[in-house]
């Protein structure tokens, strides 16, 4: 499908890690009208404000990357915030897009939508086939609702609202909060501070045995734009009416122990790695089946060590901002 560079594209959540990467990708491809709005301009939790924003701006496409996100501890501590805010943002943006006759929208979900004991690698048809991981169930349920919102507007109103489910993401503009961050930014910060303080040991949460898949956010942005730009017939031929989401990942995983060893290498840490098995591991393994996305002509290009080096460089360059 020809790239429609003159269309107005609204990226909801442009200051976040994923949203900012999508903006960079769109601008690099030559999109001339990429619309962004910070929270001071548009509160996505305010339904009336969201509807007014869509009415004011002639929007052609929407990337719904706005979300409340966090690691295991954040999900455990603030479950009500995670389910309420994500449900509200999704409902507000998708309904406003529909009422403003926006035909194309891409919703960004999460691999946590799949059951804790889903067969590995996880295929799209594993959705709603078992119990979710308890530590992030509220967030996962919100993301499942987002998928079903898109499917429902397609069925009832003939919209072209698509969903992509990324694996664990990392990269520039990640959240490096010492308590509420995901595993890669948490470890990058911990190892960096250990190097700066000449510490001889870094303690990692959990046993180190769970296996995880990691995708650099620039790859995620490239995949998102690729899926959005697909011809509708091509997209629909690789999905089903009640199974319209597509996995995005590398198709490869590693143990948390192997991840920590790679981060130690990237950050220059020479000390001992210790694992605190009293802390929760989460799901034993989370690997995405990305055969559907590959069939649609896209696959990841950034290797883990290369991507971690890029993320660490951004962290060091933005130390004062990132450490808050």
UniProtKB/TrEMBL annotation:
It catalyses: GDP-beta-L-fucose + NADP(+) = GDP-4-dehydro-alpha-D-rhamnose + NADPH + H(+). SUPFAM superfamilies: NAD(P)-binding Rossmann-fold domains. The record marks 110, 112 as: Important for catalytic activity. InterPro entries: Epimerase_deHydtase, GDP_fucose/colitose_synth, NAD(P)-bd_dom_sf. It comes from the Bacteria. Pathway: Nucleotide-sugar biosynthesis; GDP-L-fucose biosynthesis via de novo pathway; GDP-L-fucose from GDP-alpha-D-mannose: step 2/2. Its EC number is 1.1.1.271. Keywords: Isomerase, Multifunctional enzyme, NADP, Oxidoreductase. It is an enzyme of class 1 (oxidoreductase). The keyword Oxidoreductase applies. Substrate binds at residues 190, 205, 212, 281. The keyword Membrane does not apply. The active site is at 139 (proton donor/acceptor). NADP(+) binds at residues 13-19, 108-111, 143, 166-169, 182. Residues 9-233 form the NAD-dependent epimerase/dehydratase domain. PANTHER family: GDP-L-FUCOSE SYNTHASE. Belongs to the NAD(P)-dependent epimerase/dehydratase family. Fucose synthase subfamily. Catalyzes the two-step NADP-dependent conversion of GDP-4-dehydro-6-deoxy-D-mannose to GDP-fucose, involving an epimerase and a reductase reaction. This is GDP-L-fucose synthase. The lineage of its organism: Bacteria, Pseudomonadati, Pseudomonadota, Gammaproteobacteria, Pseudomonadales.
